[in-house]
């Protein structure tokens, strides 16, 4: 391991799931940009996360021409975060950059990341500054996600940080100790410490293909993010429960007063139905919160590997 890390200066890890239309363009822009970096030796590691299109054969085609292109083929789709982890676990560089395969993370930012790294920063992360090209829904959901997560998580995350960053070898080694299921790297990395710096950038539009994050996947990702770095939502359910219990108590006193001192009893069918439905709904949400944590414990207790590899070619 040690001797490798001296040989390769920079690794670029690229989780790839059905990106056949982006791989050649990605490679070309990466090579062009690497020429501007003062990096002696680099490698590009594509992690094929169970693609069903020609992604892998495109990667192999590149590898046949350029042995600095390497790949890990996962045995099926394990999800972006696990694919990323597989790449980080196998990268050999003294510095490791992670970025998406769809060119939304502009490779042209790499020289700036490297510059900051060489200036002594151990985590150089990027902060997305949205422009008009990002769909309004994505912008809002992303904003809401960071707002809620920061309120609930113990470690605040900066808004707009994604998995486009450079990590020093020390940080990559630290990350290898995190074998938790439901990995949520952008919540873990700020909590690691080390010397960190953020760099703003404007994301580009996807070059080819479509996003792999549907709305329901995004919602799951957000809930996972919130519950993976904080247990506060569990307390939150108690607070909400107490609040509504207090409300119900007051309403009970009011109901007794009405029954005892007035002749207006037996109206109020609507309010009873409404409050039953409302409190029932709140209870379901609260049980759901507990359920998410329980589910995570269940999965974690099995201690299964985060990813399985069919084939890997990581040599020069
Ligand atoms: N990706 C992956 N596995 C998945 C989903 C996505 O490796 O199950 C990769 C994908 O190929 C891309 C990156 O993760 O390189 C980000 O995915 P995407 O562009 O679909 O997400 P978005 O940018 O829309 O948030
Ligand atoms: Mg994308």
Can you identify the CATH superfamily of the largest domain? Spore Coat Polysaccharide Biosynthesis Protein SpsA, Chain A
Number of helices: 11
CATH topology of the largest domain: Spore Coat Polysaccharide Biosynthesis Protein SpsA, Chain A
CATH architecture of the largest domain: Alpha-Beta Complex
Counting copies of identical and different chains, the oligomeric state is: single chain
Shape from CA axes? elongated
Distance between the termini: 15 Å
Q: Which ligands, by name, code or SMILES, are bound?
A: uridine-5'-diphosphate, magnesium ion
Mean pLDDT: 85
* SSE ordering: HEHEHEHEHEHEHHEHHHE
Q: Which regions have little confidence, pLDDT < 50, spanning 5+ residues?
A: 1-5
Give descriptors for this structure.
binds magnesium ion, Spore Coat Polysaccharide Biosynthesis Protein SpsA, Chain A, binds uridine-5'-diphosphate, single chain, alpha/beta, eight-stranded mixed beta sheet, elongated, 316 residues, disordered N terminus, 2 domains
Question: What can you tell me about this protein's structure?
Answer:
There is one protein chain. The protein has helices at 2-7, 23-34, 55-65, 80-90, 110-118, 136-152, 169-176, 185-191, 215-228, 232-261, 269-302, and strands spanning 10-16, 42-48, 69-74, 95-98, 123-128, 161-168, 196-201, 309-313. The chain has 316 residues and is an alpha/beta fold. The protein has two domains: 10-210 and 305-313, Spore Coat Polysaccharide Biosynthesis Protein SpsA, Chain A (Alpha-Beta Complex), CATH 3.90.550.10; 232-302. Strands 7-5-6-4-1-2-3-8 form an eight-stranded mixed sheet, with helices on both faces. Helix 3 links the parallel strand 2 and strand 3. Helix 10 packs antiparallel against helix 11. The longest helix is centred in the C-terminal third of the chain and has 34 residues, at 269-302. It is elongated and about 90 Å long. The chain starts with a helix and ends with a strand. Mean pLDDT is 85; it is low at 1-5. The structure holds uridine-5'-diphosphate (UDP) and magnesium ion (MG). Uridine-5'-diphosphate is lined by residues 15-17, 19, 49, 77, 79-80, 83, 100-102, 104, 211-213.
